[in-house]
Amino acid sequence: MKEIVIAQDNRLTTSRYELTLIEKRIFYYIIKEVRNKYTTGQRDLFDDLILNIKVSDLCKEVNQEENNKETRKALEKFRSRNFTYSSEVDDDWLTCGFINYAHIKKGIAEIQVSHKLMPFLVELSSQYTAYSLHVAMSLKSKWSQRMYELCQKWQGTDGFRITVDELRHSFMLEEKYDRYALLNERVLQVAKRELKELYDLGQCDVYFEFTEERKGRTVETLRFKLFRKNSMNVKTTTDLLLELIPLFQSIYETTTKPKNDVFIKDVILQLQKYPDLIAPLNKRIKEILAEGMKSDTPRYIRFILNEDIVGFNPKENKKAAAKPAAKKEEERPDPMMEILKLSKEKTV
Fold first, then answer.
1. pLDDT tens digits for 267-301?
2. Phi, psi of 257 (to 5 degrees)
3. Average pLDDT along the chain
4. Are 256 and 149 in contact (CB under 8 A)?
5. CA dist 180 to 146, 185, 208, Å?
6. Which of 256, 264, 272, 266 has the alpha carbon at shortest distance from 301?
């Protein structure tokens, strides 16, 4: 199955909310649709976004193909759900619904996504969670879904620590599992078993083990150890994309150059939309950088990103592939040589 990478802001990954298994699958599908339809625009002026989705497609994606009523019921509950984000550092607090409304008519579900949620889905900073849509959709427990996202948030590390209180707060479990023994049995162990089983079957890219840190007899903090396919030298598309992002951010100084930051975000969005482009681009960029950074290297790489990624059109590529190869194809000019030529002309 073709891997689809979706992403969300880390603030959403760790925010306070609870969704059922089907509601969460609906949200994954909405994230995919939002990122497919999002186009370059004013980053700070988001509007409410209306998605029109075939009910049959939605039911199939959330594994309710023969149960339209259950999908409608989940949509109804999903509309009433809120998530809450707060940051004492920035004095920032937000609570809002995931969607404003859902209207089903003649087999089409019209779903409006709040403009308050949009930045969490499309305006990604360097702090975001990328994960496999196929893995997320295949999980059978809502706790496995949340723990999978937490593991993916710490992509590129060996693990993370989180207090029991923080975990309860994010998952809205302060009253439901007030005893740690219940939290461990019904949340942590359930997620741990499912992720490990799928990992062993080659259907999930990560699983975890964890140890407890106590204060007296009370478990206060959990230390998670992450195990990935990457540790066996099998890199996923997500791994390759996460290798490219810091390289681009460093080359184009995105923290101090807003226009470059916008450009790189557009590149990332396009790569997430067309993940088949990630592996060849990763290989090409690594080959260029292996020759050493030169004065014109950033311009050369930017040319490649504009031509091969931002300007990628799958329809045109299919047409080109369908045409019979010419007997004698003229040799295309090396883009690096063209850039060097332009550079020399400007200095004359």
1. 988 888 888 899 999 999 989 988 888 889 999 99
2. -125, 95
3. 84
4. no
5. 18, 9, 18
6. 264
Of 150, 130, 116, nearest to 269 by C-alpha is 130
Contact criterion met (CB below 8 Å) for 282 and 276: no
Look up residue 28 and give its two tokens.
């994954």
Q: Which amino acid is at 173?
A: L
Mean pLDDT of 170-178: 89
Distance CA 277, CA 284 (A): 11
Task: Name the DSSP letter for residue 48.
Answer: -
State how far the Cα of 55 lies from the Cα of 73, in Å rounded to an integer.
13
- What would the two tokens of residue 52 be? 């029109």
50-62 tens-digit pLDDT: 999 999 999 988 8
- Of 97, 125, 95, 93, give the one whose Cα is nearest residue 113: 97
Residues 26-70: tens digit of each pLDDT: 999 998 888 777 654 444 456 788 999 999 999 988 888 777 888
Residue from 137, 131, 146, 134 nearest 191 by CA: 146
User: How far is the C-alpha of 133 from the C-alpha of 155, rounded, in Å?
Assistant: 16
Q: State which amino acid sits at residue 283.
A: K
Q: Distance between CA 209 and CA 139 in Å, rounded?
A: 18
pLDDT tens per residue across span 181-222: 999 999 999 999 999 999 988 888 899 999 999 988 899 999
Q: Any idea what the Cα angle at residue 150 is, between residues 6 and 208, rounded to 5°?
A: 115
Task: Report which of residues 164 and 228 the model is more confident about.
Answer: 164
Q: Is 197 left (phi over 0), alpha (psi -120 to 50) or beta?
A: alpha
Report the pLDDT averaged over residues 125-130: 72
Label residue 235 exposed, middle or buried (CB < 10 Å: 0-12, 13-18, 19+): middle
Q: For residues 344 and 104, give the distance between their C-alpha atoms in angstroms, rounded to a whole number.
A: 60
In eight-state DSSP terms, residue 155 is T
How far CA 116 is from CA of 41, 96, 123, 146, in Å, comes to 16, 7, 11, 21
Read off the amino acid at residue 201: L
Which one is predicted more confidently, 169 or 1?
169
Cα 84 from Cα 307, distance rounded (Å): 40
